[in-house]
Amino acid sequence: MEGTLIPVKSLHGHTKLVEELNFSRNVDELKIISTSWDETVRIWNAGTGKQVGEPLLGHAAKSSGIAISTDGTKFLSGGHDGKIIMWSAETRAIIRTIKPRVASLSFSPDDKTFASASSDGTCRVWNSETGELLFDFDDHQNAVWIVAYSPSGVKIASGSDDHTIHIRNTRTGERLTQPLLHADCVRSIVWSPDSRQLISACDDGQICFWSAPTGTQLGSPLQAHLGEITSNCMAISPSGSLLASASSDHTARLWNTVTRQPFGRVLQHNDRVYTVAFSPSGQFVATGGREGIIFLWDISQEGVIATAAVSVSLLHAAPISHFAGDADQVRSHWVSSEYMSDMNVSHGRTRIPSQGA
Which ranges does the UniProt record give for the WD repeats (predicted)? Predict the structure, then answer.
């Protein structure tokens, strides 16, 4: 395989596995926010690899999910203690605490509301400014593992252990279609950029495509992996032309969303892969897993994927860098186009700049 794996920084501080992390949208200084089973939330300087300030203490049990507002001024953390904490990105202070049990978090595109999914089978929609519960729905018959706003902000989808997805109106909570039936537990959901298609993934390694307006399945399921596809294990490119999936079978894979055929080479890991994300340009894919490393992959010639081309050969399928940590599990999401401009790219290699570089 072409390309070179370039080690970057190792972020040392968490004493137990890293459950999830995210890049901050506040671009004064590129930062990473992470949660861990050591009950802390930590903020890191992505360039130096140094921890910024002291750990944020607020959870009385393992901290898990992270969601960052579109404007980058605040972020949410979820914990196994059943709390959602909203933090100020600038002051690092707690804005408010809400206490439902949490499995997944999602901000609305306008940041005015956010949604939470819970293992008790309930989804809730909250006012971001006041913390007021706007409405909830509990007609799933089992744990809800994923909740996701549509890019249009008009709809919200939830996936559950009861093998269904529910699509609802974000303002009223009214269900807009019949439940979307699956053969196994639904773990991941992504929307197409135009909000007209919904793509779901299950424990059985299958990916399903749906019409969001009608709830009709589009074609047969795609048997994408030999292992389960868990939460945060799918992503769609900015143009909507490529889908990325990651699995416990130690691989991440790319798919043409029109033909549903594999695109390029397998992105191979040595252990379970827990997360996958596209860069804002669509040229890079980030993956992370139990190895405790975030891999960055150059999947195509610059600009090709952004044009929604569907038959482009893969130029590089080897990881172009990695970002190592102490934990045996990493989850990541690309959230800032400025991250790409802060990276030095030459000869097919990418690295996060160090202090003084």
Answer: 11-54, 56-97, 95-136, 137-178, 182-220, 234-256, 266-307
